[in-house]
Amino acid sequence: MSSGNGSYRVIGTRPRRHDGAEKVTGSAIYGNDVQLPGLLSGFILRSPHAHARITSIDTSEAEAMEGVFAVISGKDFPEVADKIADLGEGAVNLSYLSDNVMAKTKVLYKGHAVAAVAAANVHIAEEAAAKIKVEYEVLPSVTWVMDAMQDDAPLLHENLCTDHMGEKDEKPSNTAVHMHFEKGNVEEGFAAADVIVEREFKTATVHQGYIEPHVSVADWTTSGRLKIWTATQGAFTARQQTAEVLQIPISKVVVTPCEIGGGFGGKIAVYVEPVVALLSKKCGRPVKITMTRADVFEGSGPTPGSFMRVKVGATSDGKLVAGEAWLAYDAGAYPGGMIGPGCMCVFSCYDIEHALVDGYDVCLNKPHTSAYRAPGATQVAFAMEQVLDEIAEQLGICKLEIRQFNAAKEGVRRVDGPVYPRIGLVECLDAVAQSDHWNSPLEGENRGRGIGVGFWFGCGLKSSVNASVNHDGTVNLTEGSPDIGGTRTSIAMQLAEVLGIDTFDVIPQVVDTDSVGYTDVTGGSRVTFATGLAAYEAGLDLQKQMVIRAADLWECPVDEITVEEGEFKGAGNSASFKELAQQLFKDGEPLVARASVAPDCATNGFAVHIVDLEVDPETGKVTILRYTAVQDAGKAIHPSYVEGQMQGGAVQGIGWALNEEYYFNDDDTMDNASFLDYRMPTMLDVPMIDTIIVEAANPDHPYGVRGVGEPPIIPPPAAIANVMSEAISKRFYDLPMSPPKVWKALSETS
Amino acid sequence: MPIVFIPAQLKSLTGGVSQVEMEVDNVGQVIEQLEAQFPGIRDRLCDGDQLAPTLQVSVDSSMGTRGLRTRVAEAQEVHFLPVIGGG
C-alpha cells in the first residue's frame, strides 16, 4: 500500500542506520559502559513488604564497613512540595515522585527503595545494604483494583480524596481520580438498538520488558555542577525531575542520554538518577547504579492492570448506536495512571453517536505505573473489539465489514469531544480486505482467524535541532531526542531531503542538555514527526541562507537564484549543495542553522492486525501461525523502521495477550520478578510479522508523517482473543490467555 | 463564533448546558466568560492563573501548546481534556 518514493530522493528509501555499526560491534556507549576516574558502585536496598510503615532505619553498621563511601536514606532527600509539575508529556506530583525515588515514612510496594549505598564495588555495596537495619510496621495491602476501591480497603495515602475534575470528595480513598465523558444521549442510543452486548474484562499488570535495565552515573563535581549519564527516553525531563527531587536549580544539572536498550514509556520517570546524585554529593566521587532485572520488575513502573465493563448497542444492519464503558485502572502506589487515554480510546475507532465513559485511577500496592506504548489503549481495545465481534456474531455480519461500516473517519467526533481531521482507518481496513492474508484459506481443527483495531493519538510537543555545514558540504545535525528506533537516521533523512544531499552527508548526533535546545521525550510516537519537522525547518533555513550567499557570490539578485533537488542556479552559474557549501566556506561566515518547533497537532494513528492461530487442546498452548500488521504511517520516512515498530509492537502485544503478568503472592509481593518466570515472547514464539504500510498523509507535516511507535501494541490482545473464539468457541475476558487458563477452559467444556 | 464544549463533569455548574458560543480570541477569555456565566467553573479548570496542570485544551483537533494564551478563531471548537502521556 506504500506509495513508494514518489517525488522524493531520500524519503521512502532504506539506508543503513548511522549508529548501526557501533551497535552491532559493541562500541556504542550505553549507561553501563560509562567509566569515570574514581567511579564507585551503588546498590539500592528495597522493601520486602507490599505496605509498611518505616519505624526506624539504622545505617551505622553499613557505614562502618571498609570500602563503603556513602549511605543515604529518605531523610537525606529534601522535602518536596505537593506540587504538580508539567513534564512536557504528562504531569507529575513532585512529592509523589520524590517519595517513589526513596520512601520517607511508608513503603507502598515490594521493591520500594528505602536506602542506598556507594562502595568500592557492587558486592561491597550489596553486602553493606544488607547490614542496614530497617524496622517496619507491616500494614494490610491490596493489589486488585476492585478490592482497592472498596470502602474498607487498606488506604495507601491518608489524605488522598477522589478528584472529580477539580472537585474532591471529603472522605479519603484509594481512588485518586474519577473521569466522566458523554456524547449524545446514551439511553436514547440503547433504546434504538436491536442488539446489545455487555461484558466484563480483566487485564493483568505487565512490564515493558526493555532489555537494558535502568542505569545511571552521577558526578557531583566540586564546582557544584551535577553531571548525569543515564538510560532515558528524555534527557531534559530527567534533568527537570532530578533537579526538582533534589531541589536544586535546573541549570546546575547536565544530563547526557546514553544509547538506550528500549524504553517503551518505562524510561521517562526517574528512579536511579537522584539516588546516584545524592550518593555522589555525599562521598565526592562519581557513582553508578545498575538495576538488576528483579529491581526493574519490582522497582520501576509497569503498565496498569484493569477491570472494565463495556456495553455496546447496534441496529440490525450493524450500525453501532450506543456505547457505555466503566473502567478502573491501576495507578500503582501513587496517583497518576493511564485512565485518561483509556477513557478517550475505548470508542475512538468507531463512529458511535451516543456514548458514555466513566474511568477511575486507583492506587494500590504495586509499583507506580508508567506508560507502555499507547498507555491505556491496549486494555480498552481488548474489551471493545471483543464486544464488537460478539455483536457481529449475533447479527451474522462479517467481522471486517462491521468495522468498515462503523469506522471512524474525517469529521467523526470522539467521546471526549474533538472531531477527527484526515485519518486513515478506512484505508487500513480496506488494506486488510485486499490482503493476501485475509483472502487465503485457513483450515484445520482448533484454528481460527480474526482481527483487532487500535488507535493512538500521537503528539507533537517540543523539539530542537542544530545544523552546521562542514566545509566539505556535509552537515552535522545535533538533536535532543534519544534514538530508540532509528530516529537519528529518520530525522537526518528529512534534512537530507530538504537540502538535496544524501542521507550519509548528514551526521546526526544525540547530545546532552547543554548542547541543544529543549527537547521533549522520545515517546508519544513523536520523534520522527516533531524532531523531523525541526530538521526540515533547519534545512529550509540553511537553504535560505545559501540562496542569499549564492546571490552575493554570483552577483545577481536573490530572486534570480533557484533551488531544485539541491541544485542552486543563478546568473548562468550552478552548483550542488556540496559544491556551493565548499565555495561559501572560503567566502564569509560559517553556515549554521537551528530550529525549534512545538507542533500542536495529534498525528492520529490507526492499526489493524490479522491473526491466524492454533490452540493445542492438550496443553492450552497457543501457536501464532500467521500475523499481519496493517498501519497508517502517513508517510514512511524509512519504511524498515516503520516495519520494525509495527513488528516490535505486535510481538509485545502477543506477549501481553498470551503469557505476561505480574504474579502476586498472598502477601502481595511479586513472585515472578525474572525473565525466567515472567514469560515474554522470544523469536521462537512468533512467526514473521508481515507488515502492510498504509500512507494516508498527515496534513500537519510537510512529508505527511504520522507517529507509528504506539498503535501496533494495541490490537494484538483483542485480535488474539477474537481468534480464540473462532478456534475453540471460547471467549476469554481475562488477560493473559495463558496455557493454564486455556486448558482449564477447554477442560470445562469437555 | 467559537464553540466551547463543557466537560461532562462540569455540567452541574452550567445547569446541564453542554455547549456555549462566545466571542473570544483565546482560551483565557473562554475561561473568563465561562466564569461570568457559570460561577465556580474557573476553579475547576485552572490552578491560579494557569490552566490546571492535569488538563490540556484542544482547539478543533489541535492540542493547545500555549495554555490560556492558546488562540481560538471563528467557528473553532474548544475542548478541555485530560493530559495524556505516550510511551
Name the descriptors.
heterodimer, A: 750 residues, alpha+beta, seven-stranded mixed β-sheet, five-stranded mixed β-sheet, 26% strand, B: 87 residues, two-stranded antiparallel ribbon, 2 helices
Describe this structure in words.
The complex is a heterodimer of chains A (750) and B (87). Chain A contains 20 helices and 30 strands. Chain A has a seven-stranded mixed β-sheet with strand order 3-7-1-16-13-14-15. In chain A, strand 13 (215-220) and strand 14 (226-230) form a beta hairpin. In chain A, helix 3 packs across helix 7, helix 11 packs parallel to helix 19 and helix 15 (487-499) runs parallel beside helix 16. Chain A is globular. Chain A starts with 19 loop residues before the first helix and ends with a helix. The mean pLDDT of chain A is 96. Chain B is α+β, with helices and mostly antiparallel strands and 87 residues long. Helices cover 18% and strands 26% of the residues of chain B. Chain B is built from two helices and seven strands; from the N terminus they run E-E-H-H-E-E-E-E-E. Chain B has a five-stranded mixed β-sheet with strand order 2-1-7-5-6, with no helix packed on it. A two-stranded antiparallel ribbon of chain B has the order 3-4. Chain B starts with a strand and ends in a 5-residue tail after the last strand. The interface between A and B is large, with 54 and 29 residues.
Structural class of chain B: alpha+beta
**SS field, number of helical segments of chain B:** 2
The total count of strands of chain A amounts to 30
Largest sheet of chain B: 5 strands, mixed
| N- and C-termini, Cα separation of chain B | 37 Å
Rounded to an integer in angstroms, the radius of gyration calculated over CA atoms of chain B is: 12 Å
The SSE order of chain B reads: EEHHEEEEE
**Biggest sheet overview of chain A:** 7 strands, mixed
Low-confidence stretches of chain B: none
Q: Which helices and strands appear, and what pairs or packs with what?
A:
The complex is a heterodimer of chains A (750) and B (87).
Chain A (H helix, E strand, L loop, with lengths): L19 H6 L14 E7 L5 E7 L1 H4 L4 E6 L10 E3 L4 E3 H8 L4 E2 L5 E7 L2 H9 L2 E6 L6 H4 L12 E4 L2 E6 L2 E9 L2 H6 L3 E9 L11 E6 L5 E5 L4 H12 L6 E5 L15 H11 L3 E4 L2 H7 L6 E9 L5 E13 L6 H7 L8 E10 L13 H19 L3 H8 L18 H10 L1 H4 L7 E10 L6 E7 L5 E5 L7 H13 L6 E5 L16 H28 L7 E3 L2 E4 L2 E4 H9 L6 E6 L7 E11 L6 E11 L6 H20 L30 E6 L20 H14 L10 H11 L1
Parallel strand pairs in A: 1-16, 14-15, 18-19, 22-23, 29-30
Antiparallel strand pairs in A: 1-7, 2-6, 2-8, 3-7, 4-5, 9-10, 11-19, 12-17, 13-14, 13-16, 17-18, 20-28, 21-22, 21-27, 24-25, 25-26, 28-29
Chain B lengths: L2 E3 L13 E3 L5 H11 L3 H5 E2 L2 E2 L3 E5 L2 E2 L13 E6 L5
Parallel strand pairs in B: 1-7
Antiparallel strand pairs in B: 1-2, 3-4, 5-6, 5-7
